[in-house]
Specification:
mainly beta, 2 domains, six-stranded antiparallel beta sheet, globular
């Protein structure tokens, strides 16, 4: 098993006033040649959007874009006709495909929105753009994995145009959980959203992450109550 730890304090960052992002991988003006991608995972941004702030209409193509909000509410609108409000407990996915225009704005003028935005290279290029979102019951991820994004119908998750899978768990302190990959040869980018955990002897705290490859499964132990996100991803190059 190969592991690489991404400490929260070592992430790239910026301050645009209305937007304060932290970058796990090279993005915008932040560039680290050792942190360009992990397999087909290209972007993981930890965003703070101030009240009244937002992303004006802008284009994307041939990228699978997943948004995971933690607090506040984000208003989304895109050229596929997708138009919705996403908040904590919701997951949103957009397949940019041949090309899409979209905007995202904080619904509140005063309260911030915090979220992860994730970009993954697609399996099939130039598909018809699509948008989907769903509210998931957070109680269904207590001390077990809740699959929220997957191409497999049996996972009852949002569909993604890639052999990738997103899973969330809220793990009680002292509990252990195993993650087994759904696709042979995939790696996993595991993020501690909140709390702390231990993986393969590595201690991880809030917003730390660990990239794991070369194994079909691994164990995680919560050293305090922990919210975890596992992004399973093909390791071939885009």
């Amino acid at each position: 098993m190969k592991t690489t730890v991404y400490k929260a304090a070592d992430r790239g960052s910026a301050d645009y006033g209305w937007l304060k992002p932290n970058y796990y991988f090279s993005f915008a003006q932040y560039h680290d040649p050792s942190k360009v991608h992990f397999g087909l995972l290209r972007v993981l941004n930890d965003d703070f959007v101030a009240g009244g702030g937002g992303f004006p209409t802008h284009p994307h193509d041939n990228m699978e874009i997943v948004t995971i909000p933690f607090s506040g509410a984000l208003q989304h609108k895109d050229s596929t006709g997708g138009n919705g409000l996403i908040k904590a407990g919701d997951i949103q996915i957009m397949s940019a495909g041949t090309g899409v225009q979209h905007s995202e704005f904080n619904e509140s003028k005063t309260e911030p929105v915090t979220l992860f935005q994730v970009w993954i290279f697609p399996k099939v290029r130039n598909i018809k753009p699509r948008y989907d979102q769903r509210t998931f019951d957070i109680k269904e991820r207590v001390n077990k994995w809740q699959i929220v994004v997957s191409p497999q119908e049996t996972d009852n998750a949002l569909w993604i145009n890639q052999d990738a899978r997103f899973a969330l768990t809220n793990l009680d302190a002292g509990k252990e959980i195993n993650y087994a990959t759904a696709f042979k040869g995939n790696g996993v980018f595991l993020v501690v959203i909140n709390g702390s955990a231990e993986v393969n002897g590595q201690s991880l705290n809030r917003r730390d992450a660990i990239a794991i490859s070369g194994t079909d499964d691994f164990n995680i132990k919560a050293t305090e109550n922990a919210e975890l996100l596992a992004i399973e991803i093909p390791m071939n190059q885009a």
